[in-house]
Amino acid sequence: MNNIFTSPRSILAARHARGKFWRGVFFSSTLIGLIALAALILTILNRAAGLVVITDAVDRNSLAGRPLTELTRPELVTILQDHLTRTRLRTLERNNGPLDSLDEETLINLVMEQVVKPTIRKSYTLAETLFQRAAIEQEIAAMRAETPNLQVEFRSWLNPGFLTRSMSATPELAGVRTAVLGSLWIIAITILVAFPIGVGAAIYLEEYASENRVNRIIQTNIDNLAGVPSIVYGILGLAIFVRTLSHLTSGAVFGIQGSNGRTILSAGLTMALLILPILIINAQEAIRAVPASLRQASYGLGATRWQTIWHHVLPNALPGILTGTILAISRALGETAPLILVGASSLINKDPTGVFSFFTALPIQIYNWTARPQPEFRNIAAAAILVLLVVLLSLNSVAIVLRNRLSKRGT
Amino acid sequence: MTHETNNHYAIETRGVNLYYGNFRAVKDVDLQIVPQKITAIIGPSGCGKSTVLRSFNRMNDFVPSFRMEGEILFHGQNIYAEDVDPVMVRQRIGMVFQKPNPFPKSIYENVAWGARINGYKGNLDELVEQTLRDAALWDEVKDNLKKSGLSLSGGQQQRLCIARALAVKPEIILMDEPCSALDPIATLKIEELMRELSRQYTIIIVTHNMQQAARASDYTAFFTMDDDRAGLMVEYGETHQIFTNPRDQRTEDYITGRFG
Ligand SMILES: Nc1ncnc2c1ncn2[C@@H]1O[C@H](COP(=O)(O)OP(=O)(O)OP(=O)(O)O)[C@@H](O)[C@H]1O
Ligand SMILES: [Mg+2]
Hints:
The structure holds two protein chains of two kinds. By secondary structure, chain A is mainly α.
């Protein structure tokens, strides 16, 4: 049967071939992206867990002939007293309180840190641990021949201890608590400053600014600022917040002594500057997407400009604005260069207590650890990257939940 | 400021010329709208009907290039005078648009919002009910006032927009092709509603539908385009006269379908 919709077979075949070709091209683009992402995550995971070989300065099992966890508190205290000098003991008691008053966990930690002093002889990646077991066993056997008291254990470098400990020069004892807190403080300030200013600027540019040369120049500048390298913002932050406004950012005007401008406040303000253009552009786009018919409806009822903006434009633009905010937060959380310039220090191990504290942040810590020679630092850097990703995803999911709740309203 | 003699017109225009930039969209309109009647504005596409209608409540102010000459008097007062607040003008002269455009809020909020921002002091629930009744929508929505205005059908949405305009208690309601997105039954409903509303309100409606103008209006203004593309009013009078005995050849050509 010949039907009016039948095209000649040859045309059809050519069209299908073309269709298949483009489909293939687009599919491989997607595939390449997916492979890159998978490779990234696998490399990080590969470093974040694996077998480790540990030697103790003093064999932990020889201390009392039994595993440490089975010892009583007085026994642990005795071990400490036997192995440490008088001055060292006094320092410990000054820092932690009298030894007899400490609980078992703290005592075990002290014994490990001060007496056993485990050092990592060798650490294996997850892939090696899983797929080259025989070779590893051989290597360990060879090491055992030299040093008898070897401990071999499987370790996830991302563990509760890693999350709750602060910075340390020994990789086994280092943690990210200070860095996580620093990052959260900085982000909080960044959002508090950048969100209202960004949305405000977007409202002005979209709803109030008239079409003239000055406003066009402002707009062009904002568009270009979004592409300025972050290090430039770091230099700006250093000049303005750390130096020029140091009496403010150090908290001196609020009576805080002995500080300088290299504080969380400076870092947060610098990050706010950095994400401001992104926020403004996204918010403008969201505001522009609010249909003109809604504005007309509002004005037609005798609403003022502000009532129209507040009751109709902003609520309808908010989901889009929040999407932009998510992007901006992700950017701010991962930025390293500007933080280095405004004085992040990876040596800090005191938790930030407020906006005038000195600080370190997760990307700083990661950067610093990857630059160290000992391979174990690369393991904890991988763990810290995982922490950074989790923090990022949780902040973003808050914004996404908020956005979905808002966009469900009314429709 | 006030011209006592003109107070018996709802709106009176005097030598009105409307421009977008250098382009004169409408020229030399002198029109008197009779209160509590329905006035239809008809004419070919692009002749400036919407432009004229929007100039009656200063909705054109949002077009940066818009400019007007002449006077538009409401209760004898020029609404384009220096000291006039356009927001107040729009409270007194409401508008219903071509495409139904309810707010993405509940039906209740759609109606209540305009009253609330205009400082309505009475009982909002009662106002919402009364207004929805006036707009002949109450029976269809009374059980789910919390539902989104966008969940209604097109015709219902348009009646919601009318209710929303009524809730602000305007004197004049401007309607720009309010039925063009609706089916014939919904259109008839709106026409009935207009008839009902014209006891209390002055209604000015732009329409492309000749039957609608003939059926539903008391007065008709016919606009057309001049050679320079500027719109002008050709003829204005009682609807019956315009449709049965037009004085101008162009009007006759248009209503008999020999034009546009
Ligand atoms: N915002 C604007 N800026 C510039 N020119 C405009 C604008 N709005 C309308 N015009 C022009 O003014 C003239 C009249 O337009 P208007 O919308 O008033 O016509 P109309 O009679 O309502 O047409 P239709 O029946 O198609 O709705 C047209 O030539 C149009 O191009
Ligand atoms: Mg029109």
